[in-house]
Amino acid sequence: MNRVSTGIFLPAFFLYVLFLITISMFKTMDILMPQIKAMQHWFGGDKNMHLSLAFILGLLGCFASEVFHRPGKCLRASLVVMVLAMGLSVDELFQYNAPHRAFDLRDLGYGVLGLSLAAVFYLFISFVFRRRIGATR
How far is the C-alpha of 127 from the C-alpha of 125, rounded, in Å? Predict the structure, then answer.
């Protein structure tokens, strides 16, 4: 990706992280629960929501990481998954101590799966576009 399109992903990534933190805080404080439940229903359930939101997070994280030209794409995508997985783990640990929330290891598993699928998709897209751009030159 060129520098112009890469510049869009970094602020989008941070805004999305802020959105996810806000949703988690609202759920912990029992604020806007009907809207959060409706969002879970729209995604097809709690686990699908964890998978989907983590996929979007991972994809934005991988594209935002392109501002760093080193290390290579595979290592960078792996680092993104590891760092974001630690963030998801911290969120699940907070839920363990919250009175209105329940810790569920499957939520973390679906989140890490979503991050991993996003990294694989990112690498696939990068490979396809690199080959297509290289073939036209």
Answer: 5
- Evaluate whether 122 touches 81 at the Cβ level (below 8 Å): no
Helices and strands per DSSP (H, E), number in the chain: 5, 0
Cα–Cα dist 19/107, whole Å = 18
Q: What is the model's pTM?
A: 0.87
- Extract the tokens encoding 1: 């990706």
**pLDDT reading at 4 higher than 50:** no
For the stretch 66-110, pLDDT in tens is 887 778 889 999 999 999 999 999 998 888 888 878 888 999 999
| Token pair belonging to 33 | 């629960």
In contact, 124 and 52? CB cutoff 8 Å: no
What does the alpha-carbon distance between residue 119 and residue 125 come to, in Å, rounded to a whole number?
10
